[in-house]
From TrEMBL:
It holds the Pfam family Transgly_assoc. Belongs to the UPF0410 family. It comes from the Bacteria. This is Membrane protein YeaQ/YmgE (Transglycosylase-associated protein family). Keywords: Cell membrane, Membrane, Transmembrane, Transmembrane helix. The chain crosses the membrane at residues 18-36, 43-65, 71-93. It is a multi-pass membrane protein. It is found in: Cell membrane.
Amino acid sequence: MAATEILARSSTLTNVGWIGYIIIGALAGWIAGKIVKGGGSGILMNIVIGVIGALIGGFLLSFFLNTGGGGWWFTLFTAILGSVILLWIVGMVRKGS
């Protein structure tokens, strides 16, 4: 798989918009923090975790679904899924070191 195809899969924009991504990122990061380790990480880290999580979740779900057609709820679900995966991986790396 070419690098451009991987990037295109992970950054497919939905009809939410950039402000929506920030809001959804903050919510997803906070929710993922509650699921994985029992607490939030502060608003800026929640946004970062949520946005990176949305990219991860969007990439993974793009193999099974048309992620470009999703709205707010689908984007939030995708961001939470990716954020939980991200925090789980980070937790595993921290435990290993």
